[in-house]
Inverse folding.
């Protein structure tokens, strides 16, 4: 998906206010009724409908009139809310080119005022996994109340918390800068994913370093679960940095040994194939049952001195609590178990190389956002995104592609929005109650959406 950040420059305060109102409504509606959006946003003279039209035009919202007239955020809309928050916080001032397309994320360069370049990862849970989940009806039935925005936010928070904790324990990871909604900002790794490296000066040293990391992670109570050439970055001095942490599990996980072995196997396989390294234990001509094999060379789960829960305190400090760990683990488990026996991202033939090339190149200066003085509003605005709870919606979300191809200029829709706007203006002069009661949709949570706290949050935009 293309992130056309230019649009961000032209979005007004009202636009963000309505976008935020939709986000709030999505806490308990899959599709947020237009009337509710209007009520939350509380723009004067039916202004909400005009803004909705604009947001729809820029694909920040998706319109759905199948059950009642309503909207939901698209990933792009969610991106903009997170980016705006980061800019308001002074984390970065510009978004540049896309540098990576991961399995479940898009990675962009962002720059600070002083020109420092960092990496911004936008999590897209559900982009690929949804298809897998969809095919597992039972799995879905038990968890029909997951909201993809919420899951992506959890994934980002998990990644941020782990990155920070690992950094504190001296692991070679990017510096975790900040996190909001589904967005993580981190330092830019100067190097390339190992998958792009054709030659190494010291493959043995790199190999040992990487295996050492798997062991040290386990000693700290963790297994990466996706430790492969796509998630290991290497610089010109052959220094290793590991990335991509949303799927990490504890060594106390019931399948911990299998995940540990899989991570180790991925590394063996890749170094064998790419750098032609040979490993004694892979000698198929030797019957291992008859010889006293030297197992000490290959790390084994049982021989590692593991300390589960070692990082719990650090993780909680970033706001990633046990409850959140459980929630995301339950979802991700479905995915990594799917991969079990397979290779995760881990082979060079699975199309990721071409995926990496599908980057959208945009000038770094494509967006220069004025940093707003919002120190006081910072906390309130955070709460909007960060207090977002699991919504009790059922998931029938179609792919983002579908909505991209959708004709947003649909004349009927424009007509209906204009009509709604006119009605809202009329209702405003008569009092909103009449209007709401005429609508087929009944807002059960209507009262609470009127409270002053929300208004205060909205005013912070
Ligand atoms: P996913 O979880 O979707 O696999 P990753 O975190 O692995 O996402 O990132 C995908 C790609 O983006 C990586 O393979 C790498 O090329 C690039 N990338 C991610 N983080 C950084 C970073 N901090 N610095 C430089 N490149 C990065
Ligand atoms: Mg990855």
């Amino acid at each position: 998906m293309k992130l056309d950040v230019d649009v961000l420059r032209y979005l007004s305060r009202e636009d963000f206010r309505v976008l935020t109102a939709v986000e709030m409504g999505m806490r308990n509606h899959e599709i947020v009724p237009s009337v509710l959006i209007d009520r939350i946003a509380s723009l004067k003279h039916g202004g909400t409908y005009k803004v909705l039209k604009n947001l729809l035009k820029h694909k920040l919202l998706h319109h759905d009139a199948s059950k009642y007239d309503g909207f939901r955020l698209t990933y792009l809309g969610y991106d903009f809310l997170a980016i705006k928050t980061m800019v308001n916080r002074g984390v970065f001032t510009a978004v540049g080119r896309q540098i990576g397309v991961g399995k479940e994320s898009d990675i962009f360069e962002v720059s600070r005022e002083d020109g420092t370049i960092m990496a911004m990862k936008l999590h897209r849970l559900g982009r690929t996994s949804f298809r897998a989940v969809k095919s597992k009806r039972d799995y879905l039935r038990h968890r029909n109340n997951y909201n993809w925005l919420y899951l992506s936010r959890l994934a980002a928070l998990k990644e941020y918390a782990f990155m920070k904790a690992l950094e504190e324990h001296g692991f070679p990871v990017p510096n975790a800068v900040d996190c909001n909604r589904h967005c993580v900002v981190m330092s830019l790794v100067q190097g390339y994913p190992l998958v792009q490296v054709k030659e190494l000066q010291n493959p043995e040293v790199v190999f040992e370093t990487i295996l050492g990391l798997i062991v040290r992670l386990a000693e700290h109570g963790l297994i990466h679960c996706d430790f492969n050439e796509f998630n290991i970055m290497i610089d010109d001095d052959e220094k290793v940095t590991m990335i991509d942490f949303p799927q990490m599990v504890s060594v106390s996980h019931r399948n911990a040994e299998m995940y540990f072995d899989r991570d180790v196997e991925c590394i063996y396989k890749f170094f064998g194939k790419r750098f032609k390294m040979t490993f004694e234990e892979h000698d198929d001509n030797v019957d291992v049952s008859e010889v006293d094999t030297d197992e000490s060379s290959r790390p084994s789960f049982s021989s590692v001195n593991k300390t589960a829960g070692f990082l719990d305190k650090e993780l909680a400090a970033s706001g990633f609590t046990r409850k959140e760990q459980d929630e995301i683990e339950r979802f991700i488990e479905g995915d990594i178990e799917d991969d079990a026996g397979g290779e995760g991202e881990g082979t060079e033939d699975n199309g990721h190389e071409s995926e990496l090339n599908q980057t959208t190149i945009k000038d770094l200066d494509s967006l220069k956002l004025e940093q707003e003085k919002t120190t006081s509003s910072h906390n309130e605005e955070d709460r909007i995104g960060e207090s977002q709870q699991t919504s009790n919606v059922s998931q029938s979300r179609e792919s983002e592609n579908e909505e991209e191809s959708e004709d947003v200029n649909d004349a009927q829709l424009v007509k209906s929005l204009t009509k709604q706007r006119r009605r809202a203006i009329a209702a405003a002069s008569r009092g909103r109650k009449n209007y709401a009661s005429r609508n087929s949709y009944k807002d059960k949570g209507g009262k609470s959406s009127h409270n002053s706290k929300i208004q205060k949050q909205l005013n912070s935009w």
